[in-house]
Amino acid sequence: MDVSKLLEDVKDIESFLVFALALAADRAASIAQEKENPSSPYGSDANGWENTTTESFLESSIAWSESSDFGMTQGLPLSNPWKQFAVFLYCGKFMSKHLIIRSNRSLRSLERAKARPLT
User: Fold this and answer.
1) How far apart are CA 19 and CA 26, in angstroms?
2) At what angle do helices 81-94 and 54-67 cross, to 10 degrees?
3) SS3 of 51-109
4) Are the C-beta atoms of 82 and 10 separated by less than 8 Å?
5) Burial of residue 3, with CB atoms counted within 10 A of its CB: 0-12 exposed, 13-18 middle, 19 or more buried
6) Which residues contact 76 (CB under 8 A, 6 or more apart)?
7) Could you tell me if 67 and 100 are in contact, meaning their C-beta atoms sit under 8 angstroms apart?
8) Cα 98 from Cα 63, distance rounded (Å)
9) Band of the pLDDT at 71, cuts 50, 70, 90?
C-alpha cells in the first residue's frame, strides 16, 4: 500500500477513509518492524515515522497547518476539505514541528526584507 498515492486520490469521505485506514496500517507496520529491528534513535522509525507519540504527531500536524494556512500556501484547494485533512494527518507522520516553525520564521523575515524600500 502506497500511502502517498492514496493521499493524492483523496476527494471525498470514502477516499479519505481509505487513506486514513492505510495510514493507520502503515503506523501499525512501523511499530511491528521497530519491535523486530529497532531503528537508530537519531533517525525516523520504520516507514519514515518521525513522530511516534500522539503529542508529537498532533503538534507537527498543527504546526504544518498554521505555517501553510492549512495548505493554502501550498496550493491545496479549499473545495476539497477531505484532502486538506488527509494532508494534515500525513504531515503528522514526518514533519518536524521545529523545522516548520524555523522555516516559517525565515519566510516572515524574507517577506519583511522584500517589503523594505531600497535606499
Assistant:
1) 10
2) 130
3) CCCHHHHHHHHHHHHHHCCCCHHHCCCCCCHHHHHHHHHHHHHHCCHHHHHHHHHHHHH
4) yes
5) buried
6) 68, 70, 83, 84, 87
7) yes
8) 8
9) confident
Helix (H) or strand (E) holding 34: helix 13-36
> In the numeric block, which cell numbers belong to residue 100?
516548520
Q: What's the length of the chain? A: 119
Residue 98 has pLDDT above 80, yes or no: no
- Has residue 87 got a pLDDT over 90? yes
Distance CA 26, CA 10 (A): 17
pLDDT at 94 over 50: yes
